[in-house]
Amino acid sequence: CMYWDYKNYDEQKSVSEIYKSYSLSLSQPLYRPEIVEFINQGALRKEGAEVETHKHAQELGIEVSKAYFELLFARKSLELAQANFDYYTIKYKMISEMLSHGLSNKMDLLDTQVYMDKSLIEINTAKKKERLAHRKLEDLLLSPISELPSFLPYDDVEASKTALQTDLSLSPDLKIAALSRQIAQKEIALRKYGHYPKVDLSLSRTENETNDAAMYKTDNRAYVQVTIPIYQGGATEAKVEEARLLHLSQIQKEAQ
Predict the structure, then answer these.
(1) Which residues, in sequence order, are bridge partners of residue 14?
(2) d(CA 158, CA 181)
(3) Distance from the CA of 115 to the CA of which of 70, 83, 121, 171 falls in 20 to 30 A?
(4) What is the mean pLDDT of residues 117-129?
């Protein structure tokens, strides 16, 4: 909005006038092939992110499985240590009773005492390992556990291992490497379009509020804008070469 004050010398009086203008413009790309490549590249990035998420889920599943078996092993070790302690405790009592009747000797009693003390140490060690394994599994599951859940039967575990070993395409790392190679290939095409011309359609409409009879009340315009890159100082070619090197790097990673 513009406002100005001027003097009309013919009528010898001051005249005030307000000028208002409202405009709206729209631009529609007509020829920008890099937009399609950018959309395709975005779809590949989305798929790569989904595979990456699946990979992390698999890794978490492996960590949970390891923690499960560590806790199971710790509890079995504790049970074994307790069984040994109970055995040597009973044996110690038997030898003590036999020793009182002259049916054994002091060396057997001391030897049993050593094994009984060793079993007690193993019990304390197994309890500590069991507590650590239990806490680790709870941290991974994000919930307290009282009893260990049942695991897959042996046959099902072996069948799963066989399926994973025979189908390498299930590997998230291979999928991520292949998608990264495709993204790098799209990046080369995307940067090459820096050499291409660009065509845009522009529409605009302007509304003028003024008392000036020489000015249009409404101004509608439609024009096509063509942008042709003539000289860019090698910047586009350098970006293309950078994309080629990235593509080559992804091919090497996939081959590994």
Answers:
(1) 7
(2) 33
(3) 70
(4) 93
CA distances for 12 relative to 5, 7, 17, 18, 107, angstroms: 14, 7, 16, 20, 137
Going by C-beta distance under 8 Å and a sequence separation of 6 or more, which residues neighbour residue 46? Answer: none
Handedness of CA 58, 63, 64, 70 (dihedral sign): positive
Would you place residue 213 in the very low, low, confident or very high pLDDT band (cuts 50, 70, 90)? Answer: low
Q: Output the CA angle 237-240-242, nearest 5 degrees.
A: 110
Give the tens place of pLDDT for each residue, 25-60.
Answer: 888 888 888 888 888 888 888 888 888 888 888 888
Contacts of 14 (CB under 8 A, 6+ apart): 5, 6, 7, 8
- Hey, which residues does 16 pair with through a beta bridge? 5
- For 163-210, write each residue's pLDDT tens digit: 444 444 556 777 777 778 888 888 888 888 887 888 999 998 888 776
